[in-house]
Design brief:
This protein has about 200 residues and is mainly alpha-helical. It is about 85% helix and about 0% strand.
């Protein structure tokens, strides 16, 4: 494209033809219009360049934002997966802990049942010994040995012999009761008030 100076300094071939003045005027008009067009063209080219640079900048920004969004999405997905995994681990730990507590509680309950059953059996045995002792004492009291007169020497000797046997039997039963009471005290069980009353009577 010719510049305005090239147009202005352009020399036409001389000869018979158009008037030099009219040609110069026409060329001046062309030069003026061309200069305006040329300046406008340069301005438009600069604007186009600026717009192109801006477009490239925004395209670069768009790529950067896309990368940031992709990274954010990936990070979010990873965090969600991590949170879900942690939640599953916490839930599993809670279930395991609950199972452990229940198992321990069942074991302790079974142990308490066994101890209670053992205590009941020992207490029944203790009541049986006490009942036998009371029965034997009542048998002695109700025996014929107590139905004697003061002059009946035979009866007196028999009574004495029965009393000695009773004392020996009572000593054996007392030892058995003491042993049972000691075992019951070890098991933290005290005789009932009914048993104590029966012993006192």
């Amino acid at each position: 494209m010719l510049s305005s100076d090239e147009i202005r300094n352009y020399e036409f071939k001389k000869g018979i033809g158009y008037s030099k003045r009219s040609v110069d005027q026409f060329l001046a008009e062309i030069v003026n219009d061309y200069e305006a067009l040329y300046k406008e063209n340069i301005e438009l080219r600069d604007k186009a360049t600026a717009l192109s640079d801006g477009l490239q900048y925004y395209k670069s920004m768009e790529k950067t934002l896309q990368k940031a969004l992709v990274l954010a999405q990936k990070t979010s997905d990873e965090e969600q997966a991590k949170a879900a995994k942690n939640a599953r681990v916490i839930e599993q730990n809670a279930h395991d802990k609950a199972d452990e507590v229940l198992t321990k509680a069942r074991s302790e309950l079974d142990n308490i049942f066994r101890q209670t059953d053992d205590l009941n059996r020992r207490f029944e045995l203790y009541k049986t010994h006490v009942r036998n002792l009371i029965t034997s004492q009542l048998d002695i009291i109700n025996s014929d040995a107590y139905n004697i007169s003061i002059n009946d020497l035979k009866g007196y000797l028999k009574l004495k012999e029965n009393l000695e046997d009773a004392k020996e039997h009572e000593s054996i039963d007392d030892r058995m009761i003491n042993e049972e009471e000691s075992q019951l005290q070890d098991l933290e069980i005290q005789p009932t008030e009914e048993v104590v009353n029966e012993q006192n009577t």
